[in-house]
Specification:
Length: 293
Amino acid sequence: MSAILIDGKKIAEEIRAELTRKIATLAGRGVVPGLAVILVGDNPASVSYVTGKEKACAEIGIQSFETRFPEDVSEARLLDKIAECNRDPSVHGILIQLPLPGHIDERRVIGAIDPAKDVDGFTPINLGRMLLEEPCYVPCTPLGIIEMLTRSDVPLNGANAVVVGRSNIVGKPLANLLIRKSINATVTVCHTGTKDLASKVKAADIVIACAGRPGLVSADMIKPGACVIDVGVNRVPDATKKKGYRLCGDVDFDAIEKIAGWITPVPGGVGPMTITMLLSNTIDAALRISSGK
């Protein structure tokens, strides 16, 4: 028996259809939601991500304002641009494409974003508000994963959830969301210092792999019927492919699909949800700002 495939593309389409109603509300106020996208350098992966986000904005009716800086741009110039976006009333959300070059203090740059326009949910203020369960913008990938779980009717109340990875972008905020009373899971966060990873994962009702290591989670680590969410997007050399590589996640999809109760594919799983939650956060920012909240 194969696992139920959690189709991120399909769920993303459902959410985007819901967002069109909010766009209509904004149109009634004479407001077009605006997202400022700032890219430093020409890293192919970053360029691809930005292009995808801008395309999604155009499809749903969000205006995107792109600024590209060379790799050697000064931190001061980048901060000036963020300050400009903070002041611009046509900009409701600000996205800094990460990672940034080594000579730039990433924390300082992210911290300079107005929390009211921090649609990535990365500023210390929004992260702190998330911890306290106050109104805030939640990082897009964790927020998308919660949507996937709830809309797929995965049992969450009292579930044992294991998050494999502790990044500030996915692992840490996701663990925080899962332990909220509204979700009520019991969470274990695993990382490079975890002893006997296999036994920790084997006990989980829900496994979220977000370590960025291809094939890290194998079939013998999965409890029958568990829900497996694969956040990893890894390029693995493959001479049979035109580009010379193939994309895979952090879990052994083919083997685990035969054991799990639910599973996400790579690509087509978490990825579309991340972009959709960015759109959602941007539209919510426009609604809040335009209503004076």
